[in-house]
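Researcher: Re-running this chain for the archive, since the previous output was lost when a drive failed. Same request as before.
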Amino acid sequence: MNFLAHIYLSFDDDEITLGNFIADSIRANKFDHLPERVQKGIKLHREIDTYTDAHAIPKMSSKKLHKNYGHYSRVIVDIFYDHFLAKNWADYSKVPLDIYVDNFYDLLEDNFEILPVGVKRMMPYMIADNWLFSYSKMEGIGRVLNGMNRRTKNKSKMNFAIIDLEEHYSAFEKEFTAFFEELIIFSKQKYRSL
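Model: Regenerated structure tokens:
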């Protein structure tokens, strides 16, 4: 899953949210300097990723993309799924998406000192361009895919995946909806057992 899903699957627990968000910027188990609940958020993130990677539905979504994007297809699916979460946000949260993401950006700013260097570097761009809110629109997803393609020095061709999203939009959306219901249940169980 991508940024928005990991934040959402922290169940409004600020420290868990921080850990869940920064986990990809933390190498191995080098996080014992962080507050205990932030560490638990990192562990939750990794459980979510393991569950997602092994699940049949994201694999089905990825298969549609594999011919054109190879191993990048899993990353593209994560981005597509964040689009459907943002687009259908009212189905998952009573807090409007714009307010939810503003609160998250405030949380990052309030905890800037504990963020990994990579997150500190990315954060101003994320906030200025309002990445999380922009996921709800096709233009926003297009910008994300273009940015990811640039990061791979144009090797991934991920910028073209917006065409695949348009072509298989309802199939991807159905797959996301079915998978996310299961992922919420799994994540709640893991969250309670942390």
